[in-house]
Amino acid sequence: MVKKISTQQLVVGMKVHSFVDYQVGNNDLKIGTLESDNEIQTILKCGIKEVLIDTSDGVSTEAGQTQQEVERLLHEQLMELEGPAAPSPPDIVHDGPEDYTAQEWQNAIHSAARIGNDAQKIMRQMMDDVRLGKKVDNRLVQRSVGRMIGSIRRHPDALISLALLRDSDDTIYQHSVNVAIYLTAFCQSLGMDEQTIVDVGSGGLLHDIGRAKQLNDPSKKPGPLSSSERAIVEQHVTIGLEILDGLPGINRNTLTVVAQHHEQKNGQGYPNKLPNARIHKFGHMAAIVDTYDAITTHRIYHKRMDSHNALKKMLEWSPAQYDEALFEQFIRTIGIYPVGSLVRLKNQLLGLVVRNNRSSLLHPVVKILYDINKKSPVRPQTINLIRFRHTVEYQIDDFEQPKRWGITPMAHLPMGASAG
Length: 420
Hints:
single chain; alpha+beta; 5-stranded antiparallel beta sheet; disordered C terminus
């Protein structure tokens, strides 16, 4: 049995299953049976507050929560983020953008794909320029973010859908574009003015620009990093700031995103181990979206998480690492049921989330693909669950793993190859 306990409760002989706090690549952390007090002290010095232990193969304890209890509590926390739905007459739904026709949605996806692909080309050229000693053209960066703002305002879910569903593309260019997309949508959900959104979104595009000068990037190796390798990886923040220093048109908000996207609320981030009080709001936001995109992308050193499990895992990490109010707002931005999630309705139909309803995050638009009762696929049918919000049978019961039912989400979503 796997249980979550406080790191203060660790004793020699316990078998560490995994750490609640996100510590990718830290080779000093022991996974497996703890053999000495020194190993426990190393975990404590890293600022980790909670850990999962395997009680079936190691010293057990009555303290803590089982993994099932933790999962249930996290699911309940997610559901509580729904908030009040916008009022509407019982039989009339005014959803605005959620009522796209199929053709309108397809057009929105194609337009968003062009914006995303163009932004990737800009990032590729910009990183090549940096390697050659040329300066970053901030006008191109801001112009690209401006197009993202326009896309999200016209069709709130289209560009975010592409970021959520890119097909295991772990290039630095795609990651930079995704972070910019999420930050742009995040800022708009908080009601920020357009210039601030441009500045913060530009920080998203440029947050990893320092990696352009790290030709032998240790982060691409499989397995955990040594302490020296980790130190090299962490230098990309400082290198990025040096590249951008004194560049015409670079705003302080942009530099804040670059400087603080790896800082953590518990003071264990890098490069400066800033305490929570010194981390700017934009730094907190950047840390959230950078982590989310990283763990939902397949990389050589870890398999990707699906969106739902990523949100639950980050919800578990949030007391130590993130501004919790901002993280909750980020969940509302991308949806409690992110695009591409497979959900089980109470009538035992399986539906793939294709869009979110901003007025009611518990009632997304889904494409029905499978009937569990009949144990067979069904003819695909797209339904807007907000129209059935008073019908118990069409309420979402839980998430499902697509592989269990032989469903490939990308095959049933409208973006296809154009997602880039």
